[in-house]
Amino acid sequence: MLRRILLTLASLGLAAGLAQAQTKPTLTIYTYSSFAGKYGPAKTIEERFEATCNCELTWVTAEDAGSLLGRLRLEGQNTKADAVVGLDMNLVAEAKALNLFAPHGAEVKDLSLPIAWKDDTFIPFDWGYYAFVYDANKLPNPPKSLKELVDNPNGPKVVLQDPRTSAPGLGLLLWMQQVYGEKAGEAWGRLKPRIVTFTKGWSEAYGLFLKGEADMVMSYTTSPAYHVVAEKKSNYKAAAFAEGHYLHVELAGMTRTTKEPELAKKFMAFILSEPFQSAIPETNWMYPAKTPAAGVPVAFKDLVQPEKALLFTPEEVQQNRRAFTDAWLNATAR
Amino acid sequence: MTTLKLPHPGSLAALAILGLVAGGFIALASFDGGAPPLPSIGPYLGRVLAFTVGQAALSTLLSLALGIGLALALARRSFPGRGVVLAALSTTMVMPTIVAVFAVFAVYGRSGWFAELLAFLGWKGSFSIFGYPGILIAHVFLNAPFVARITLDGLNQIPTEHWRLAAAFGFTPGQIFRHLDWPVLRAELPGIAGLIFLMCFKSFAIVLALGGGPSRSTLEVAIFEALKVDLDFGRVAWLALIQLAICLSLTTLMHWAFTRPPVGHTIRSLVRRPDAKNRRLMLVDAVVLAAGALFLAPLALSVLTGLRNIPDVVDADLLRAFGTSMTIAMAAAFIACVLAVALASAARRRRLVLRSPRMAALYDVLPDALLAMPPFALTAGLFLLIQRFGDPSAAGFILLPLINGLAAVPFTYRYVAPRLLTAEERYGRVAASLGLAGWSKFTIMDWPVLKRPLAAGFALAMALSFGDFGIIALFGGTELVTLPYLLYERLGAYRLDEASAVGLVIVLVAFLLSHLSGRWSDARD
Amino acid sequence: MLAIENCRLTWPDFVADYSLTVEAGSLCAVIGPSGGGKTTLLHMIAGFETPQSGRLTFNGQNLLPLEPAKRPVAIVFQDHNLFPHLTVTQNVGLGLRPSLRLTDQEKTLIESTLDAVGLKGFDTRRPGEMSGGQRQRVALARALVSGRPLILLDEPFSSLDPGLRRDMILLVDALRRRRAVTILMTIHTPEDAADVADRMAFIADGRVAASGPPAAILHGSLAPRIAAAVSNT
């Protein structure tokens, strides 16, 4: 008897599953893990998109943007990805070289990015500035410029990320390069005595900072918003630097190999729409690429607004990354 | 007599492992078509290699020293809570590295417990653990307890009669060490030292976080960079090969330099060690145990700070991740055990039946190859292989248990191989005279001796797989969320407190598993 | 003379209470069902077990306060007597000097003792390369070189085949006569030692149920119990 019930249930379940699979197309989206995690925007975005598309979204994740691209490269033409959400500017050249991405065909205008956007392969979905975050209770007078941070021998101690393994790490490498140019190596040398360590990723560095190992940590101008909104703590601040801040833009693209090109295009267009953009600030803790009608949350309005956005083009990054890294190594690895 | 013989299952396992490693390597190397140029070992790579070997060697030496000291002291002493201590011993090694890093900072960091204690005592200076001290503290914390555990298991195998003889002859503590403890240590050391060395050689997040500068980075960092930043798979393959070559030649040398001495017949030791009464040793043991406890306990306890956030993380996500982790861990442990038994019985045949200890040593070293291979490279290589034959979206489900299982083989092998040798030495002649061979020899002669260490090895392999994050980085997904994945996901979303709670859950599960493992390996045959 | 008077040992599930005397220079065979307390008796004499009450003396010396190593007693187990990583000479040498710093004189003694147990020329072999009988001869040689007047043999030859077992018992008998040592030996099959033993003790349920000349024990009122004990094991 029990067996019969189980069999019936199983076949019903199977039938339901099949029916669903037959009627609704599925869109597979690759992203990094915290985007699709409990506190990430993926769930909200999924609900909102599924409400309009009569389709299903499936998220496949890798640890971070670098792993995402590594996985895509491994899978090549066989990839199941219809779209990818979460690459960054510094990976664009490598990503394009994979020959996996198709033009998104979406209309990209009225962005709130500090730079003009012309690329027809990738759509920016959110952005932020890299910045040094500090605890105002412990560091009442933070440096006012990158130069002040680098040159003051009694300045605050900082915890950084290794540019060989981490996106913010690479961000600071490029920032230093923008500010110091040829002299970046010497600047690293001057900063070195106050570098607590270079960690593998952002999480370790931020954790060390919160545990009190350093006075400042390399992070984002938007990080304090998290502490204000989720923890009701206002003592964490990002230091505004006079030279300007290096820009971090997160990108999405659709694949050439997708079996659902129309749906993928629809999703690409959805990225810059209100329902997607309004989900970003308080889940991914970044600025939306296109400010929603209601504006950004209050906590974001109090954030540091850099005067100038610093940025290398993806091509410049691709060509010079090795040389920049070597200069950094030479200056810090003694 | 000419009968067609099937190859020994151990030879098949060895071939399969070699095939997987070589296949993965070739798939990576030829990814861009044609052989990639050999990377020049310039001054950068040279420095990285020198540092990698140096820190690994130092970490291994210190871990062995503390581990063996603890094992001997624990073997001589009994005290309330000893069982808990023993179970805790093999827990540290399976901690996710980030948990270990945060533990080291919680205790020895700028505002850690140690600094607070010094400040309380009126000391005003500042100290920094970055560099060698931090790296060594973390590595010794992770590995010394494991050394102690394995060594203790070995010491427990000394026959009861030998202890009685030692008492009857009035052996001094020195003579006891020389005639009873040392043969065990000599048999176990090359294997353990090899394992610890490999793990420290590959250590990566710890070295970066605690090293304090890019001069302190290991070869695995270069591999990581090549794989995830340069996307240069050819370079990954070559760097992986360099790592494999260095690790394997060092462990092989170690195995050959310390040939395994003949083992005694084993019966669980039930007697009190005669040297337990020695006054001087009481003092030594007290000092060793106190020092070990002072060093290890705060680090282990700091993990418990995650306790208050446990209520925040217990939800459907966590339960699902727990289930996924368990399933993967069991599959991985099964793979690890089957391979270890096959390899160990092939090694035994070489050593005792065919009398070629050097060939046997090759089998002993082979599992280490799986550990020496960078997990990223192995994963990427295997993924490329699997992709040719099947659906790549299912790859994670196959690769995760497979890679975790392969990585656990060196550990299960340590449990299985010595017992299989013992079985042969004890009953080999009987089995031969009865004409037992193949499956019947396994079930009649080996299984009774093997089932408990195998259960212990299974539990350890599960614990190892449970704490592993390595390849989840590449092949996670909302459909494949394990506990370590959950931990890193929470970290990435600023939720450090929740991450530490998830870390604690992982450590607790590992503790329970190693408690079971200990109960099983200590149980009488 | 070895004198055991009401030596009592208790465990939750077993109580032993031994009384037995063995003349110096004699060979006493201990028989009885397995689990009856034969090995415990030997372990008590050697010092591995301590009785809660009773007296244990050898030639008038009280053994109870002495550490195993300080007792005039050498013991040979059924198995695991030898350290597999040491040579025959070293294994025997342990009976003289656990430090193994042997003088030439001691080496000569070891050599002659090995000769006496029929192992001439085996000095550099290791236990793994020897048969079970040969290994027990090494253990016997070690007991002899130690110069201790009381030797306990705990079923030393049970794992050997009957012919070899008989040879070994004859060897033990010859050696104890030549060296004037006292021997207490537990055995499985009483017939093996019926003609060489001066005395036989039947132990069951932790007690010496009877002791006396072998013939009296084997053919006396206990004969059926002995037969049952032997056939059961």
From TrEMBL, chain A:
Keyword Signal: yes
The keyword Repeat is assigned to this record: no
CDD domains linked to this entry: PBP2_TbpA
Coiled-coil blocks: none
Leader sequence segment: 1-21
Classification via InterPro entries: SBP, SBP_1_CS, ThiB, ThiB-like
NCBIfam families the UniProt entry points to: sfuA (TIGR01254), thiB (TIGR01276)
Name of the molecule in the record: Thiamine-binding periplasmic protein
Native source species: Microvirga arsenatis
UniProtKB/TrEMBL annotation, chain B:
Any Pfam family matching the protein: BPD_transp_1
Location of the protein in the cell: Cell inner membrane; Cell membrane
The UniProt record lists the keyword S-adenosyl-L-methionine: no
Membrane topology: Multi-pass membrane protein
Gene3D superfamilies: MetI-like
Membrane-spanning segments: 12-31, 51-72, 84-109, 129-148, 192-211, 236-259, 280-301, 321-344, 365-386, 398-416, 454-478, 498-516
Main localisation: membrane
Domain of life where this protein originates: Bacteria
UniProt keyword annotations, A-Z: Cell inner membrane, Cell membrane, Membrane, Transmembrane, Transmembrane helix, Transport
Domain ABC transmembrane type-1: 49-254, 322-517
Family: Belongs to the binding-protein-dependent transport system permease family.
Protein name: ABC transporter permease subunit
Source organism: Microvirga arsenatis
Automatic annotation (TrEMBL), chain C:
Keywords in alphabetical order: ATP-binding, Cell inner membrane, Cell membrane, Membrane, Nucleotide-binding, Translocase, Transport
A Pfam family this chain is assigned to: ABC_tran
Highest taxon above the source species: Bacteria
Record domain ABC transporter: where: 2-230
GO MF, one example: ATP binding
Similarity comment text for this entry: Belongs to the ABC transporter superfamily.
PANTHER family membership: SPERMIDINE/PUTRESCINE IMPORT ATP-BINDING PROTEIN POTA (PTHR42781), THIAMINE IMPORT ATP-BINDING PROTEIN THIQ (PTHR42781:SF1)
Protein name: ATP-binding cassette domain-containing protein
Organism whose genome encodes this protein: Microvirga arsenatis
